Amino acid sequence: MSDLIPFIVAKYNYWIYITLMMIGLYAMIAKNNLVKKIVGMNIFQTAIILFYVSIGAKKGATIPIIEHAHGDAHGAVSHTIEIAHYINPLPHVLMLTAIVVSVATLGVALALAIKVYNRHKTLEEDEIIDQIKGI
Amino acid sequence: MIWQLDLAILTLVVVCAIAAISVKDLLGSAILFGAYSFMMCLLWAIMGAVDVAFTEASVGAGVSTVFFVAAVFRSTRRTKD
Predict the structure, then answer these.
(1) Is the model's pLDDT at A106 over the cut of 90?
(2) Is residue A58 a contact partner of residue A88, using CB atoms and an 8 Å limit?
(3) Optimal mutation site among A17, A35, A37, A65, interface B, most CBs of chain B within 10 A
(4) Is residue B61 part of a domain?
């Protein structure tokens, strides 16, 4: 038990990511409004992107651009690259793609929600189901 | 990464997320989602992922908010939950 509490506190950022993910999942499942569901979907996506970016972070490291890449004044590269001084850029590149995909899915989802509103004149899920059953 | 700043912005992110899904007005929900996206962008900037932060500030906080506001103006602001 005494080992467990430092373990939980040291990984506090992961717990908050899981909380954000569950907020998004709750909004997707339990909310009645279609736009609220779409907001929940976006919260879920950004929570996963945040988790991946935090995997690549390192303590005491700088952004992944090599310092003095063109060598010193004589044009010779005289040092080796220390990998612990740079943040891992691979999760950043993957999540850059995921952000663009998320805005594309947001656009499609909102267009579908507007189509549903034009047909049923409401965005509430239970009223739409009532209208469909009533026809 | 400064852990005090990290923890403060993480708390703000969670507060913005809960407010965005619980406010009873879709326009307010859209604006709170924009605030959430911008807080997320700050979080990535202090984690050192500056390229992801740029993209999120332009695409997440900019274009997504415009999409939400446009969709709310083309449909309705009313919501029950």
Answers:
(1) yes
(2) yes
(3) A35
(4) yes
Contact A43, A23 (CB under 8 A): yes
Q: 3-class SS at B37?
A: helix
Instruction: Say what the pLDDT of residue A61 is.
Output: 83
Residue of B nearest to A111 (CA): B71
CA distance B63 to A106: 10
Chain length of chain B = 81
pLDDT tens-digit map of A36-92: 999 999 999 999 999 999 888 888 888 888 777 665 555 555 567 788 888 888 999
Cα distances (angstroms) measured from residue A124 to each of A25, B16, B58, B72, B79: 18, 23, 30, 13, 7
Query: Residue A100 is part of a domain; what is its CATH number?
Result: 1.10.287.3510
Q: How many domains does chain A have?
A: 1
Between chain A and chain B, the number of residue pairs with CB atoms below 8 A apart is 127
Residue with the two structure tokens 């807080």: B39
> What ipTM goes with this model?
0.92
Give A 14-43 residues with CB within 8 A of chain B. Answer: 16, 19-20, 23-24, 26-27, 31-33, 35-36, 39-40, 42-43
Integer Cα distance of A45 and A29 in angstroms: 15
